[in-house]
Design goal:
The chain is built from 26 helices and seven strands. The chain is mainly alpha-helical. It has two domains: about 425 residues, Amino acid/polyamine transporter I, CATH 1.20.1740; about 150 residues, Rossmann fold, CATH 3.40.50.620. The strands form two sheets. It has a five-stranded parallel beta sheet, with helices on both faces. About 45% of the residues are buried.
């Protein structure tokens, strides 16, 4: 089921559409969960990976096979964190970023992510076009245009549910794996050399550069956004036990799928090492060159055909999942909903148009440079996806008991630092190579300001969650101190008394709650009307499941409301708590109507005109929706006594 209309659900058309048995045979339950990881895994075997694996095998034999294993372990850790975020908080990574960062930063992250997805799609479109050229002699430009048709294929499959899409992708993955298995059997590798390649080493001066290219092509940012959304296509119950089971089954699914991707990448490298390195071809610069050399070296006419068919399957499967990632990112960051075919068409055109233009202007030999450029762009985006992800799953206030432990957190940050450093180095080296040619001044004039802006943005993205978490702990500590000192009760000293019988007090947990409650007690006085303390949770789990969501944020907010209500009861008030979910204004209006409140008390937010436009004015909109007086507690000036 896709959930109630109007909720901001990730991929709402298939959200929660796959039922997972709560009990019964464990393999049947794992099978119901299986699927999302295979859609993610195809991103780890796309044409960009083929290019780097071919370069590594032809230049350094099997010596860099260990890089694939290390990259796979890193990818498995990061994808498991993505799974945890989606299952526990009911948010994809883009939605979580929108909730964490201010609009300007969020917009910058969206633009970077769209550029990275377009770059990734560019590599996948080119891979499919190259495969069509190898199989049918179709010009590359026509092949690129033809690959846009898979957008229509995805729309057709999507009408039959996410399971049909998953089955189609798994079928393509099987073609890739089967084709490369045949290639490995044909080349008859030296298995002793393969085993030696699992021992970390850098055999030559260019090995580090190639190794970083392999890492950059393996750990892709769009897969983190994609996986955190796809796990939500399974109907997961709100209880901690159900969430824990969903995480465990999804991690098992990820391990199987990513290890299959590892075998595919390993097979490409082994084929390149056994064919090209052994024959003395140490500088394979393009996929076309590799395919053309297979037949004369191996003496098998259909070896390049198998190679091209596997490449076509890799390109098509990757373009489909890349288009899905584009949909998730656009909806998650911008919080807008447009028809699926429009979203997918936009995503595809962002890749097809530049590919066609470059091929027509620079010729088909430019495809190798385009593939390299696409991997560099992915490298630049990667830190902006990994850093927020690790922050989100480390936040105990938001994740509750599902926040990652200390050991996992240390490993996650270590992996993050390694990936950021290596990809940053790859980016610097690539840009340095570009600046060595003609037009150096213009390249520097463009690159240096952009690089400085990206560094500033990265630093902000890295530090802000820590600062917010520290501030939130201070606010919670302040709440505890307020309760201990009875500051709310102190409001009775200046109480004046009012004729109201049912009073609703809306709290936003912004740090001004104690001030609002103290003023409320002072205003209400000795009449002791019935008090309803209200708060609206805006998390995605609460929006989908309502009061039964059981997510950490809802539980924490309910506990804080109850703590305030308990203090009111000690002063003789009849106090109740009401926790809503979704959009604040309509939810508050609903709860106020249900409690029949004749007075509503809430805090003034203190926004200026610009913030009112961006964030809205709750008090102004609420007063038009309720049949009650609205009392707005202004922020106390510094010189006023408490």
């Amino acid at each position: 089921m896709s959930g109630p209309p109007g909720r901001n659900l990730s991929m709402a058309e298939v959200h929660g559409s796959v039922q997972v048995p709560r009990y019964g045979n464990v393999f049947r339950r794992i099978f119901a969960v299986a699927g999302p990881a295979y859609l993610v895994a195809v991103g780890y075997m796309d044409p960009g990976n083929w290019a780097t694996d071919l370069a590594a095998g032809s230049a350094f034999n099997t010596s860099l096979l260990w890089v694939l294993v290390m990259s796979n372990l890193m990818a498995l850790l990061l994808q498991s964190l993505s799974v945890r975020l989606g299952v526990v908080r009911g948010l994809d990574l883009a939605q979580a970023c929108r909730r964490e960062y201010p609009p300007l930063v969020n917009g910058a992250l969206w633009v970077l992510c769209e550029i990275a997805i377009a770059a990734c799609d560019l590599a996948e479109v080119l891979g499919s076009a190259i495969a069509l050229q190898l199989l049918f002699g179709l010009p590359l430009a026509w092949g690129v245009v033809l690959t846009a048709a898979d957008t229509l294929l995805l729309l057709v499959l999507g009408r039959y549910g996410i399971r049909k899409v998953e089955a189609f992708i798994i079928g393509l993955v099987s073609i890739i794996a089967g084709g490369l298995l045949v290639e490995v059997l044909l080349v008859q590798p030296e298995w002793g050399s393969v085993a030696t390649g699992l021992i970390p080493s850098l055999p030559g001066p260019g090995a580090l550069y190639v190794a970083m290219g392999m890492l950059g092509a393996t750990v892709m940012p769009h897969n983190l956004y994609l996986h955190s959304s796809l796990v939500q296509t399974r109907h997961i119950g709100p209880s901690p036990a159900e969430k824990r089971t969903a995480i465990r089954f999804n991690v098992i699914d990820s391990a199987i799928a990513l290890n299959m991707a590892l075998l595919v990448n390993g097979a490409i490298l082994i084929v390149a090492a056994s064919v090209f390195f052994r024959a003395g071809y140490h500088e394979i610069t393009s996929i076309q060159e590799a395919s053309h050399l297979l037949e004369p070296i191996l003496g098998v006419a259909w070896a390049p055909v198998i190679f091209a068919v596997a490449l076509l399957a890799a390109g098509q499967s990757s373009t489909i999942t890349g288009t899905m990632a584009g949909q998730i990112v656009m909806e998650g960051f911008l919080n807008i909903r447009i028809p699926p075919w429009v979203r997918r068409l936009i995503t595809r055109l962002l890749a097809v148009i530049p590919a066609v233009v470059v091929i027509l202007v620079s010729g088909e030999e430019s495809t190798g440079a385009l593939l390299v450029l696409s991997q560099v762009i992915l490298s630049a985006q990667l830190p902006f996806a990994i850093i927020p992800l690790v922050h989100f799953v480390s936040d105990r206030a938001a994740m509750g008991q599902f926040a990652i432990g200390r050991i996992t957190r240390v490993l996650a940050w270590l992996v993050t630092l390694i990936i950021v450093a290596l990809n940053g180095w790859l980016l610097v080296e690539t840009l340095s190579g570009l600046s060595a040619g003609e037009g150096t001044m213009w390249i520097r004039a463009l690159v240096i300001p952009v690089a400085a802006a990206l560094m500033a943005l990265l630093l902000y993205v890295w530090l802000r969650p820590w600062v917010r978490r520290w501030w939130r702990k201070r606010q919670v500590a302040a709440d505890v101190g307020i309760h201990a000192e009875g500051v709310v009760a102190a409001g009775l000293a200046g109480a004046v008394g009012t004729p109201y019988r049912n009073v609703a007090i809306a709290l936003d947990f912004s740090g001004r709650d104690a001030e609002v409650l103290r003023e409320a007690v002072r205003f209400l006085g000795c009449n002791r009307p019935a008090v309803a303390l209200m708060h609206v949770v805006e998390s995605a789990p609460a929006g989908f499941h309502g009061a039964d969501s059981g997510d950490a944020e809802s539980q924490q907010d309910a506990a804080r409301l109850e703590a305030w209500a308990a203090e009111f009861r000690t002063m003789g008030f009849e106090a109740t708590t009401h926790l809503g979910s979704g959009r604040p204004v309509p939810e508050l209006a609903r709860m106020i109507g249900e409690t029949r409140a004749d007075l509503v008390i809430l805090a003034a937010h203190g926004h200026g005109f610009v913030k009112d436009v961006l964030l809205g004015s709750t008090a102004d909109r609420l007063r038009h929706r309720v049949d009650a007086h609205v009392l707005v507690v202004a922020k106390r000036r510094a010189e006023e006594p408490a």
